[in-house]
Amino acid sequence: MFIFVVGLNHKSAPVEVREKLSFSGERVQEALTTLRAAAGIEGCCILSTCNRMEIYAACTDMEKGLASVKRLATGWANLPQEMFSRYFYVHTLYNAIRHLFRVAAGLDSMVLGETQILGQVRTAYQLACEEQVSNGIINTWFQQAITVGKRVRTETGIDQFPVSTSYTAVELAEQKLEGLAGRCALILGAGKMSELTLKHLLSHGVQKILVANRSLDKAQAMANSCGGEAIAYSALYERMAEADIVISCTAATHYVLQKHQVEAAMAQRQGQPMFLIDIAVPRDIDPQAGEVPGVHLYDIDDLQGVIDQNLEERRNAAAQAEKIIEFEISQFMRWLNSLFVVPTIVALKQKGEQIREKELARALSKVKHLSEKEKKLIGSLASSIVNQLLHDPITRLREHAASPDGHLYSEVLQNLFSLDVPGQRAKREKESPALHVVRRG
Question: pTM of this prediction?
Fold first, then answer.
């Protein structure tokens, strides 16, 4: 049984191509059913996110399976087949295993070490099981990938270093305030960045959230999503005194908060500090506001320094993760190659025994005068010759079973001895197309 992955992601294809292959709901169910019914496919799974669409498959005939997936993928994207190589990548066997393990670990994501992808891999696998399109190899492959993803995050802590601006802003506020539970936060702006910041604040236990925006309707919609309170811009400077944290990200071209306005707010806080985090470009907060006693002001450059440091930490963690992945690949390859090796050894021994019995019967039929003892002696000799001839091929095959090329040795042996191994259709041409594809992997 062979495995491969065909896909495209944020590195290989532009968004206008990726969006054509964005599967969700009933569409992914239909795609899975169509894929499983395609020629050569024994098991499959589709991983579809905003940044990637990947088809994972197990097949008995690599050439036929790849052709089916290529035809379906280009058809779904409404692309001519000759455009396949421009946007899609293909990984087979060893490289396919590594790819899925790296995806699950967050090492192939737009943001190194991001956590969401592991849940997406798990959801994709669960759907394949529900639709009954997976098989034993797909099951083991994805189960181990999920285990790898968990292990990488547990042992390296790769996701413990925030690298998004909004998350870093909230993390910085939590560190400076020694916790956000029970705190009040004021968000200036109601755009995408503000929405992300709001989610991070809630996940860190902020008790009260105020949202201010020039469009009160937008502020109200955002506040309603979290049980917060929308405030009109006219009341902004009066209500700001309630906030322990002010995170600003508006589209204004001038300072939204001036020094004197911050001073007025601080006068009402009875010595309680206030953290101002400005993640807007151009800046929303007058830099001189940081001179007000009790005020701690951070801008996008301050955050970038933290992000750069955290990215370096994630790169170090990623190096550790690669070592974990290499070990897990070797374990999976040992199991996968055993699926090739054991049936091949059994088939080879059976063929040797059939030849021994056939030739022994032919020889004995021509010499009638032999005693039973002499017949047994000749039989033992025939068995010894067959066993010695097969000993080296079988020994070498077992030795290479755990290597990345273990399946190739099995295929070569199947072709050399014309073995018929169920589920592993050996080809009889000068060079097997399946082998050729694997080498290209």
Answer: 0.68
